[in-house]
Amino acid sequence: MSSAAHKGTDLVLVDTAGRLHTKVNLMEELKKLRRIVEKTPGALQEVLLVIDATTGQNGLTQARVFAEAVDVTGVVLTKLDGTAKGGIVVAIQGELGLPVKLVGVGESAADLVAFDPEEFAEALLG
Ligand SMILES: Nc1nc2c(ncn2[C@@H]2O[C@H](COP(=O)(O)OP(=O)(O)OP(=O)(O)O)[C@@H](O)[C@H]2O)c(=O)[nH]1
Ligand SMILES: [Mg+2]
Fold it and tell me: Most exposed among 17, 19, 81, 88, judged by the fewest C-beta atoms under 10 Å?
């Protein structure tokens, strides 16, 4: 964060690898990351939880734990290009009020696109 401020960087993406909601020490680390980002006023823009469309009920458990730990602002639903429909985000929104902000429909950066609720609902029900 201080390096970014020093260089006048526009955007810092903090990506955590292999984090499991069941690993208490890793979740504590995540909370610490949030606290560090928050030291810079106005820096914290989004806290996104990435959920794989193939995730079932466990996605809701994950969302609960991550939301509690770091106050998630939205969900990124990946792998919507496969057969999975990602219906768990409906339960996540219902219980935690977390909106889906982006969806992944492939492996390139350009495949991360804005969430289209209508298209999603049609695919889910159709
Ligand atoms: N088809 C498809 N593949 C995806 C999508 N999103 C990610 N992938 C692929 O899934 C694999 C895992 O993606 P990562 O971004 O490394 O997953 P991750 O959750 O960050 O994994 P960790 O960093 O190990 O926790 C990679 O091969 C990605 O290219 C998607 O929307 N569609
Ligand atoms: Mg990763």
Answer: 17
